[in-house]
User: What shape does this take?
Amino acid sequence: MTTQIGSFVALGDSFTEGLDDPRADHEGYRGWADRFAEQLAVHRPGVRYANLAVRGKVLREVAEEQVPQAIAMAPDLVSLAAGGNDMLRPRADPDALARSFDEVVRTLLMSGSRVLIFTGFDTKFPVLRLIRGKVAAFNMHLRAIAARHGCDVVDMWSMNVLNDRRAWSADRLHLTPDAHRRVALRACEVVGVGVDEDWRDPWPAEGIPSSGTRAWLTARWMDLEWGRSHAAPWVARRVRGVSSGDGRLPKRPELLPLFSGDIGVGAG
Assistant: This one.
């Protein structure tokens, strides 16, 4: 029940940090977790909320850096969305990664917190769809882990509304503000938080052609622009052995009271 959630800590990477859902004041990002916490605050004003997620983190770093902090806070609810950055590594092993994920879940449960698990997206963009099989295998493990331990699970793979290109920002890795809103609504549904909107609502009709020569040329231009602006810099960081999250601190490191309207409203 919602009234039983008096504190919430979010763990993970850029997805939970909130990229690319900018706050209206341009002071960082909002994201699904902030939006979810805001909905909690509607039903329970003053609910305490911390967000320890940092972009670029792999599962091992989440386990070593964020989990101990979360346990020390003793929250009622912990969300865990991790493994996506691991899947982008060429040698990623979904089976081994799942065993590590299971250890993290058991550790959090032993501390007394309720755990909310997120599966990976079903991304179908060129290049990224090459890892689709690995993500699917990892997701099967995550569903089994959730069932085995009695955890709540937000199955984003089954959220067909996220298959629309408007759900994804230009880098094809992070959600747009409206997609973050939909994920937050789905999380509310899973946990039992009442909301007035439906994450399943269809996207508005587009006024541009979805097929034909013009559409094909537009798609190819977007592929080239993505490769130049996003894929190439990402590869360069991998070669140098650096991460976008190196030296970055969590945006909300303390478990503090949150009241409806406290967090800066984003673009959607």
User: Anything to note?
Assistant: The chain has two domains: 2-201, 210-245.
